[in-house]
Amino acid sequence: MAAGADSIDDLDVIRSGGMKKLFGGVYACATLGIFLREFTHGHVRQLTAVLRRLLVALAVRTPLLPGIADRAYIDIDSLLRPVYSKRKQGSSFGHTKIANKTILRRGLSPLAVTISTDQAAPVLAGVRLRAGKAGSARGAASMVTEAINTAIEAGARPEHILVRGDSAFCNGKIIAAVVKAGAKFSFSIAHNSAVDAAIASIPDEDFVPVNYPGAVEDPDTGELISDAAVAAVQYTAFADTPNRITATLIVRRVLDANTQDPLFPVWRYHPVFTNNTEPVTQADVTHRQHAICETVWSDLIDGPWAHQPSGLFAANAAWAVLAAITHNLLRAAGTLTGSPRYAVARGATMREHIINVPARLARPQRRPMLHLPRHWPRAKPWQSLWTAVFVT
Description:
The protein is α+β, with helices and mostly antiparallel strands and 392 residues long. It has helices at residues 19-22, 29-37, 41-61, 140-153, 172-180, 193-200, 280-288, 293-301, 313-336, 340-343, 347-355, 379-390; strands spanning 72-78, 81-82, 92-98, 101-116, 123-131, 161-165, 184-188, 208-209, 216-217, 224-225, 228-237, 245-255, 267-274, 360-362, 369-371. 34% of the residues lie in helices and 23% in strands.
């Protein structure tokens, strides 16, 4: 997977050329397929525990999550990975968006949780494969709890952890789990009559312009002139349930692009339910940075998640967790190169620059030696990685 495998047959990448001299005990593709098909749900859960423990170990031994003691962000999201066979276990029709249009598509639905900091790129703290028709929030409460515990083991303090998500995850069970763990939350919340009433109660003068795409600074006053503004109001969510909670409703309003008359503007409102104690404008910016988890999805889809390689659900679930482990290992390897570029680089960049490197294996005095390309521009970061792993 680190070398770019997106199917079981890609194991041949490390079975060709002189790779057998470099690696010992490389199994055949068929053997790997048999191994994955032996997985059960319990085995996948054990593999997920390995993912969490490995992440903690990497955070302790490498600069994988710098600044986690000061601030940590946990982002949860789900997506639908398409499949094309009715015989693939767990495949069913789920909702997805293509070109801003909601459609039904056959697939499997991974649920994933990432951990990031102000200085570190996101790493995966948990992955759970589900049927395509599964609701976005199914199983999210337990995954959030596990992710918070993992972040704490990696050095985070509960009061400095912020859990973010879209409106699909704004429900009483998930928020109760976050509050019980001592962390803070920031979730988009869907419009309903109670939310709309709270938005309508905010006076126009309470909205403060925010630095939004297209915002400019007034040359006379220095204030922002923007089509976006935010305001806050206290709001009680889930009032008729045992998970009743009162926090802040941050409302961002954006001028509708179809507004024709400047005297009668039409606004679109985007509410966020949070107990983040930052100033309103900064809390809005912090919440919108939840989109950073999309970089992880694109990275995985460009690699191991290109498709689901097996017809068995448990085998595909194990494949998804192994892809998450590989992602974290690549992130850790990037931090050990000593280059800020590779510390946040995508997996495709790491594969092209650091991993898939032509080399010649020699044995002077029966000692194996790799001869790398001459005048190679990435020799220094590669050597730093080698030294950090095998020497120090």
